Amino acid sequence: MGYVYIPVQNSREEVRVALDQLPRDVTDILDILKAEQAPLNLWLTFAREYFKQGKEKEFLLILQEGSSPEIDEYYSEVKYDRIAILNALGAYYTNLGKVEQKQRERESNFISATQFYNRASRIDQDEPTTWVGKGQLLLAKGELDQSYELFKIVLEGQPDNVTAILGQACVQFNRSRYQDALNLYKKAMQIHPRCPASVRLGLGLCRYRLGQVKKARQAFERVLQLDPENVEALVALGVMNINTNEPDGVREGLENMKAAYEIYPYCSMALNHLANHFFFKGQHYIVDQLMDAALASTDHLRNKAVSYYNLARSYHTKGDYTNAAVFYRASVQELKDAQEFSLPYYGLGQVHLKLGDLKTSLVHFEKVLEAHPDNCETLKAMGIIYLQQGRQDKALENFKKATKQSPRDVDAWIELGELLVSTDVGQALEAFKIAHNLLTKNEDPVPFGLLNNIGVLHFERNELEAALQAYREALGEGIWVEFSEGRSLSLCREGALPISITADKPQFEQLEEEGLSLEVPGEKVTVLFNLARLYEQQYETQKAIILYQLIVYKHPEYADAYMRLAALALARNDFAASHELVSRVLKVTEDHADALSVRGNLELKADDWLKAKETYKSVQNVDGNHSYALLALGNWNYYAAVRGERKDPKLEATHLEKAKELYQNVLVRKPNNMYAANGIGIVLAEKGIFDLSKEVFTQVQEAAAGNIAVEMPDVWINLAHIYLAQGQFALAVKMYQNCLRRFYYNTESHILLYLARTHYEAEQWQDCKRTLLRAIHLVPSNYTLRFDAAIAMQKFSTAILQRPKRTADEVRQSVAELKNALRLFSQLSGVAASHGHGFDQKKVDMHVEYCKHLLDAAKVHLEAAEREEQQNRQKQEVARQLHQAEEARRKAEEERKQQMERRLREEEASRLQREEEKLRNLMANWNTRKDVDEEEENAGEKKEKKEKNRKKKEKKRDQFLEPEEDVNYNRSPTPGEEDEQDALAAAGLLAESEEEYLRREAPPAKKGRLRRSLYELDDGDDTRRRNTTEEQFVDSDAENPGGLEDSDTEEQRPVKRRRGKQTRVSESDED
Amino acid sequence: MKIRSLKNLTNAHNDSIWAVTWAPATADRGALLITGSVDESVKLWKGDELELDRTNTGHSLGVVSVAAHPSGTVAASTSLDSFVRVFDVDSNATITTLETAPSEAWLIQFDPKGEILAVAGGGSGSVKLWNTNNWRMEVPLTLPQAEASEGRSSEKHSGSGKFVLAVAWSNDGKRLACSTMNGVVAIFDAVRGKFLHTLEGHSMPVRSMAFSPVDTRVLFTVSDDKHVHMYDVESRSLISAFSGHASWVLSVDVSPDGSCLATGSSDRTVRLWDLNMRAAVQTLSDHSDQVWSVAFRPPGGDGVRAGRLASVSDDRSISLYEYT
To answer: For residue A887, is it within any domain?
Structure first.
């Protein structure tokens, strides 16, 4: 208990005032002080005491009185105490200004402080405490540099002025020069080892900032040793403890905070930390209370922000998003930017996201991201928002960044994977796998969902084994393992089918009675379904069926399993079972759109057109956007348009138009629907707009090729149809063949029929026949194929027999084919009567008659051919002889020429000899030498000329030979044969065919008629095919592929070529 | 139980090969492999090197089926022209030509004793039988009309469904099975020439069947529905169903010891199934196109230790495997 003794004037007595019993009315004290003319330092003592007790008013009153002009005058000698009073006032106002938030009052406080300090300076401008005070004022105003200068001035005078040193330390701390600050604090301690604990606090903070955690901790602990109730040190220690992030540390930290709270319940920092603790303990009401207290007790912006944040967070977790938003916003308002404290921004983002205000949410998250560009959580949150806004690429970018930033963030990888699923299966899978690996590494349970997704993606990439593994991992132990291994696969007892595709309840029940657990946990059903789907893909149909049935046995509401079973039954042509399964779905859910669609399909298969249409329409009533039903209706209309023998062009057009409309409807809803696009293509083709439809089909084909999950053989077939319709037979053949092999394992007889049709149009009768034989082998019960094959053989025979030139072998072959055709036709004529396969008995009989007739004719042809062959041989002989003669003649001619040349040369030689002789004769006569030289030169020139001539001639001969050889290659593939005679023979043949060509320009009337009757037969063929296949839009009636024309060009070609050569020869002659 | 590829003879024929069978060994020679192709020829092959023994011509249109008499000296072939040519294996002398007109002749099989040749009669909805002693036609076994088109109202053309594709004799010669395009499998009492019943389970063409050589009650059927079924023909029950082929299963044969099944499929593979495990144990991909026929070599002959399996395909090749 302290006392202050006020000396009584003019006596030795003193008035004792107990400090803890200061009079409530300050005027009492003042009166005593004034009356006794007490020393000024006592005034200050009392003022300080009042201040300590929080009685600021009294404090001010004493000091104001103590600094009044009268006192100044009276105590004018007591400079130091006057200054001290003024400085105290200055310090007081400095502090007021420091904590004041309102700018104006803050300013006015600082101004007051400045005035007091100035007054103090006027008393003694060298007083260091004034300088220190001024320095602190500037420090409070944030003018760090000037403040530092002032402290420096003080220190120049008094190097050991601790206050100045501390001031400087403070400046340095605020300048973030923690090392410098630390040094200054150290210096202060050296000078004044017993300085207040708070100096050590500064030391601790510096160390903390410098990352010297251990030393910082020592400093704080020392502070607490000296002053166990130092709240700041407690809080600082608490923060440090909590930041250790270890359970013990956090607990200790909280203890510190609690201690701080008990000592001083208004320390907002401690309150905030405590609130944080209780928040995580879920005791929200405590949080609210603490924060109310904290908000009431602090003006520190950041702490307030934290307090508001804690409050908001508390509301946030309680699901009160509106209030949460209010407090988050309050928190944000206390802050300059997200750099300072980003959590409330994040909270605002989250709350707005919850409230569905994506835009605002995004704005706040963006702010967080500005402050922390690599924050994974924010990146993820923004990714989700982008995703909801449909900005896939942005979302993707965010998640990619998030996974890059924190490659161990499972959620980010999963999100990224899910985002990629629709665009890049491979990368999606990669992301999922990383998540999976992270989880297994941490020995965390891997969620089914993730495993299921991995499985599904593998499945989509056709990596069935990997998919199997993922599903198995997801499913764990259960009865399905038995089924998958093939054990318990046959549930059979004697006399029962092993697994009926329609459910097998009694058998499952029996298994359960035998003690097998058939439990399928609800969350595993989907995975099990996927596993079954996988078995289906692996053609392990039996396993698939039993799994599907297990699903529906335990979860009868799982319609998809029924649907797959129905599909499997349909694939086996088991329409009854399929129908039953679909009905079962419809019994549970009357308006199951998919089930209705399948039912529609089944009805269509059963040829119940009207019912099918009704069913499809009912799907539309259930779900107007069900694109499958729309598509099916489109198909329905298309089939209706091209169906039936009695085609009504008007009806056809309306149906087509309707079909197109429906397809377009689907495309509007789903622009990527390949089937609808394919439909549009068909309608276009049906209307004869081939170029456009080809474009459509090509695009669909490309799209389908890029998607593993989609198999669209139809579009290949349609493209081939277009090629066929446009007469590009080779391309059509290639396309059909590829389609057949790629999608059907060569088992689709319809495509074989199209292929045969193409060969037929291209007049490749043998290929046509062979293709049809293959088709017959696949579907022997389809008699139309036999009919077509017979037609092809008949055509082949006629074509050969009509050929103006054929070998006896060819005719023999054609007769054999004709016999086959006849046999087939006769056979058909037999079955047609009893079965009615859709073709006309009369027509078959007509063919039989025709073939017989042709066979008779063929005999004549055969004889003719054999005769012709004989004649040809003779002609060839003649030609050969002729050629030989010609050759002989030419040889003789050449011989003659050579002789001539030889003679010429000899002459020349003799002439030269003569000249030489002459020369020799004239040897002596030197004058004439020049002439001789000239002459010699001339002679040389001539020689050269002659040589050139000869070369030219040889060239000419080469060119003559060339075309002949050419022809030779054309006729018989024996290259390298240089026998001139052969070449000549070939030339002879050529001439003959030319003759014939001329002869054939006016073909005999009889042949023409024959041809026409053949075409009539073909027409019948065409219309029949129209009924059986969907190749309808291939219209072949129009064109007449005139075999004559074709053969003409074939024959002409070599002739033309020869002419070309001839002209060139004549050109070279002119040279 | 294992098969191992020995040889793949490419371009064994000039076109797709649709039929294969073994002519059992005789006193003078070992077993011969007989193949039939779309190229209208039937070829005979010797030994493990598949040395061409002879080429028989005489068929027009593709050869659909070949069958050998248990004696090994006589064989028969049918083609799309519906003639059945019966010939001497060693001399190629035509013994007789049978005509089934107006119906087709599809797969054919001699009964185990060699007394009767059964011919799947295609559109006639019957199995035609010939006595091999005098080559006289016996009373055909006809599918009852009701059974043939039972419950398949969807068949657009009446009659196309009951097209009889394949026949199979039980090992004791007492039962004859025939199968149709719409998946009906009918069982006849061959001794009394009586239709017994049908077997349920397939709704798509059944192109090949085989009885177990060790259990006369057991019949294996394969179908376009990608399944192999195992039936007890007496109780009419489906014992087991095998799935795994990716496309139509075109042919089936049982190993001589009755423990294994070989199937050929449009999916270009030959599969070996273990009947004890009731699962596929091997998948062979020697062929590059549909495998139309598979055949185990019957036991017997000199110096023959291991079994042989042959398969033929649209890819014009013959594959020979060792079966152990």
So the answer is: yes
